[in-house]
Design brief:
The chain is mainly α. The chain contains 6 helices and 3 strands; from the N terminus they run ααααβαββα. A hairpin with a 6-residue loop joins strand 2 and strand 3 (about 145-150).
Length: about 170
């Protein structure tokens, strides 16, 4: 059965060949029906092979189309999510991202914050972190919920916030 997997792998690599085979088979199968003067009829013993080839290549093309559409729609949803995330950050969330951006490779430990001088309580910071995690901007450590670090998406957003702050200081 390894030969079947190798054939399918090579077919997946050569999409152009699969499309060419599909078009050829469709013309050979339906051509004599639609244009009998231009396309000669296929011998009866080859008709099942043509039909099987048409089904196989058609299924491959349909699967590739579905996968492509799925990736395209998912990318569109991620873009829409990014736009929504940009516009939906509250000031406290922006402040946490700005703080995390000062050293983006190190997580913030909520245990080390002096809450007598902080603008909120530890519970409020945890809630803000949960909201940022839901937006895909930070990761909360699985073993210690006091450790918060930026995701790749969070780093990009934190960089935008840093640049906005620099522009605001410059004006």
């Amino acid at each position: 059965m390894d030969w079947l997997a190798d054939i399918l792998k090579n077919l997946a690599i050569s999409k152009t060949l699969v499309v060419a085979i599909f078009v050829t088979v469709v013309v050979m199968y339906f051509g004599p029906i639609l244009a009998p003067l231009h396309v000669p009829a296929v011998q009866k013993e080859f008709a099942p092979y043509l039909f099987a080839s048409m089904v196989l290549t058609g299924c491959l093309i349909a699967a590739w189309t579905i996968v492509g559409a799925w990736h395209f729609s998912r990318a569109g949803l991620q873009k829409a999510g990014t736009v929504f995330t940009r516009s939906s950050l509250i000031d406290e969330e922006r402040a946490i991202l700005f703080l995390l951006a000062k050293n983006p490779t190190q997580p913030i430990n909520l245990e080390n914050i002096d809450y007598t001088r902080a603008p909120g309580t530890k519970l409020e910071f945890h809630q803000l972190a949960k909201g940022l995690e839901a937006k895909g901007l930070v990761d909360i450590n699985d073993w210690d919920e006091n450790l918060i670090s930026l995701t790749e998406k969070g780093r990009a957003r934190a960089l935008e916030i840093q640049r906005e702050a620099e522009r605001a200081r410059a004006t």
